[in-house]
Specification:
two-stranded antiparallel sheet, about 60% helix, 2 strands, transmembrane helix, mainly alpha
């Protein structure tokens, strides 16, 4: 059974208007207003559709909205044929009052033609809409058709599984290779640090300097009356007391005779005497006068370490205690122990270098004797 369309076009939805347009065999494209005006124009041009039971409901609504206007026009504009003869005879012809009344009713005869029904309907519909400003333009409504307007709604297809499988996922092998690379880099950096530290600590000269510097820092820490400057007052946080302070040496320490006395009696057996002998005495073959191109070593750590042990053993710290009570800060035991360890390491370095140095000196000596033997026949 074919559907029956009734009611006003103004209150219908776009989907209903499209359905009516399809039934009328006209275009259902465009916005709601365009489809509505297209249907209205088609109904105005095809009055024979009033006899069609499918579309008669649309014409009934339109006639009902136009009926009061036509009735008013018929009452305000009576035709000459509708007037009864008795009424015309009863009115005096030469009565000025009736003449004015007749003229009053005859004025609409000039505009007897009434506005066509479609135009009146459009005017009434326009009056129902809110006025638009000249600058404002009507915005398109329902530009995107809804699933109901598309006819049953289209189902959005789900993402294919092949695309989901092609998405890159974290690879276990890649993560393991990255971890192995990080471990290899860390091991390489650790080995480089180890080799650098070994090259620094495998020199008897560096060991001698490090031991001297360590002793000096310990003595300064003991003999200086350090003072504290509080940057942050003590605060209790989670049961612990936190504070921030800076330790500094007062300037009055530099003017104390005891301070300089302790430093001088420490420096004489530890730095001054060993450095003097280490610069003057050296048994290294490199410094031999028979070398073709001797490389002078201005400081022999082995000689300085041996002299340091000897001077620490014979230095009169006990006799100096009568002048300064705390002149020996380290004590005889620790002074001799550190000096002996430094001397032993210097001996180890000299023993390791001795074979190569002896071979080089022997080759140089043989070359010198050969040149001397060749020079004697030439002189004779």
């Amino acid at each position: 059974m074919a559907p029956v369309y009734t009611g006003s076009l103004q209150i219908k939805k776009k989907s209903e208007l499209r359905e009516i347009a399809v039934a009328l065999h006209i275009s259902d494209k465009g916005t709601r207003e365009e489809i509505q005006s297209r249907i209205r124009k088609h109904l105005d041009e095809n009055h024979q559709l009033e006899d069609d039971p499918v579309f008669v409901g649309l014409f009934t609504k339109r006639k009902r909205s136009v009926q009061p206007q036509s009735a008013t026009a018929s009452r305000s504009v009576p035709s000459s044929a509708s007037q009864s003869p008795g009424v015309v005879l009863a009115q005096p012809v030469d009565s000025p009052k009736h003449t004015r009344s007749t003229r009053h009713f005859n004025v609409p005869d000039i505009i007897r033609e009434s506005t066509p029904a479609p135009d009146a309907r459009e005017v009434s519909m326009m009056l129902k809409k809110p006025p638009l400003s000249p600058e404002a333009r009507p915005l398109p409504i329902d530009t995107v058709p809804t699933p109901a307007a598309r006819g049953g709604g289209e189902v959005i297809p789900s993402t294919p599984k092949s695309i989901l499988r092609s998405i890159a996922t974290p690879s276990v092998d890649r993560a393991a290779s990255s971890l192995r690379k990080v471990q290899a880099d860390a091991n390489q950096a650790a080995m480089q640090l180890l080799f650098s530290s070994r090259s620094v600590l495998s020199s008897s000269r560096n060991i001698w300097l490090i031991s001297v510097f360590t002793e000096m820092l310990y003595i300064l820490y003991v003999i200086i009356p350090w003072k504290t400057f509080e940057l942050l007052p003590p605060q209790s946080v989670a049961g612990h007391t936190l504070h921030l302070s800076i330790h500094y040496a007062p300037l009055a320490t530099l003017g104390s005779p005891t301070f300089w006395t302790i430093l001088i009696h420490w420096a004489i057996p530890t730095i001054i005497v060993p450095a003097l002998f280490g610069s003057l005495v050296s048994f290294n073959p490199v410094n031999s006068p028979t070398a073709r191109a001797p490389r002078p070593l201005y400081f022999d750590a082995l000689t300085a370490s041996v002299i340091r042990v000897a001077v620490h053993y014979v230095y009169p710290y006990d006799a100096l205690k009568s002048q300064v009570e705390c002149v020996d800060i380290l004590g005889a035991r620790w002074r001799l122990l550190e000096a002996s360890v430094v001397a032993a390491l210097a001996f180890a370095e000299a023993i390791a270098v001795a074979p190569r140095a002896y071979a080089e000196s022997k080759l140089r000596r043989a070359g010198t004797l050969k040149r001397a033997s060749l020079g004697e026949p030439s002189q004779s």
